[in-house]
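Thread: quick sanity check before group meeting

JM: Hey all, I'm pulling together slides for Thursday and realized we never actually wrote out the predicted structure for the chain we discussed last week. Dropping the sequence here so it's in one place. If anyone has concerns about the input, flag it before I start.
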Amino acid sequence: MKRFTLSVVAVVAMGTFAMAGGDIEMPVEPVVEAVAPAAVSNSGFYIGGAYSLVNSETDYQRDNYNNNNLYNQYGGTYDGDYDAFMLQAGYQFNRYVAIEGRYWNSISQFSENEWYRNAGQETQSYGEWSFGDFKAWGIYLKPIYPVTEALNVYTLLGYGKVKSDSNYWYSYSDTSLDENGFQWGLGASYGITENVSLFLDYVQLCNGVDVSYTEESGNYKYVYSWDHSIYTVNLGLNYKF
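JM (edit): ok, ran it. Output follows.
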């Protein structure tokens, strides 16, 4: 009972002291100001390289005339697959736009040439192996859409040149292509580190390009025609400075 009485007296005394203007202060927690993270720059130069699978598809035909009368036709489809490397360099202006240059060169080619011969009602099919090389370059505007901080999707819209040399129908004829024109592509990149990104994309270098020429010998005339389409699939890395 005595302890209880003393406790009550102590509480009352403290309250009276506080009302009388005592200098007892409650501890105040220090104010910590949040520091905003430094903004990461999305602009700068970058370089890169890739392994490229190149597909070249050519529809071709030869029409044979005697005194301007068609008497025979040769034709078919040539489908060539190249292993190639691709080098790139570009400048990214901001998170959404870049400009980029690319160069391709073939490492090897192994492809099959399927063709047919029409003589009256007769049709025959043959298979023939062919070898050649491939080169291309392009300059592209590169619109970018950031899906996440690390993942971007993009398009490539530009102008370039593609050259492909291949042989078929023995050694006196070829499907050589040397063409300038519009090129486009679609792709995605993923940031592995702050400076290194992995990318995968598809680029169409030419589509439906027609090439033809005519040979004449006495009463005979031979008209050759080709229709070319070439695209690439590229898997590589780029480094941003």
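AS: nice. Confidence is low (pLDDT under 50) at residues 2-20, 35-40, 168-173. The domain at 44-240 is CATH 2.40.160.20 (Porin).
JM: adding both to the slides.
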